Amino acid sequence: IVYSNWCLDTVTAMCDEGQVVWEYRSPDLKYPQELETDSCENLYVTGAHSHNVHVLSSSGDKIRIIEDIQSPYFFKINEDEGIICVCSEKEKIIVYQIASVVDTLKKKDILRKEKKKSNPRKFYEQKNKKKVHKNSLT
Fold first, then answer.
1. pTM beyond cutoff 0.85
2. Where is there biased composition of kind Basic residues (predicted)?
3. For the chain, is the Cβ count within 10 Å smaller at the N or the C terminus?
4. Which of 50-58's residues contact partners 24+ apart within 8 Å by CB, and which partners?
């Protein structure tokens, strides 16, 4: 179990019995929000007020910090498509192309839209539902 605490600016992993396995804290992480993992079990943590994404190993060690992402609140990885979707507080959706999950992100202007009064999470989920529906056998 891994969770973020935006009051303490920490990310904590605990075992099923409730004992803390590791805790990550950094002066470069402010208001941790979204948590996402990749196929290598790396953990991505959005720093909404520090304007970055921290990449941690499964043991809680910092791998890198991806800088200059304004107020990231929503973060999803689609390794099959080779993209990462980031939504900011201002509801801008930015898609990054990735060579692999451990490579540095390369910004790609595939999508940079302003969504007014919409939920970025619903936008992403609806987009994926459409893909799943198209690929279903029914």
1. no
2. 128-138
3. C
4. 52/28, 53/86, 54/11, 54/24, 54/26, 54/28, 54/29, 56/11, 56/24
The pLDDT assigned to 88 comes to: 81
Three-state SS for 129?
helix
Q: How many domains does the chain have?
A: 1
Give the range among 7-11, 18-22, 41-45, 112-116 with minimum mean pLDDT: 112-116
Angstrom distance (rounded) from CA 41 to CA 25? 19
**CATH number (domain holding residue 41):** 2.120.10.30
Cβ-based neighbour number of residue 82 at 10 Å: 14
| 73/125 Cα distance (integer angstroms) | 15
Q: Which domain holds residue 111?
A: 2-135
Lowest mean pLDDT among 2-11, 14-23, 36-45, 121-130: 121-130
Q: What is the pLDDT of residues 19-32, one digit of tens each?
A: 999 999 999 999 99
Mean confidence (pLDDT) of the chain: 77
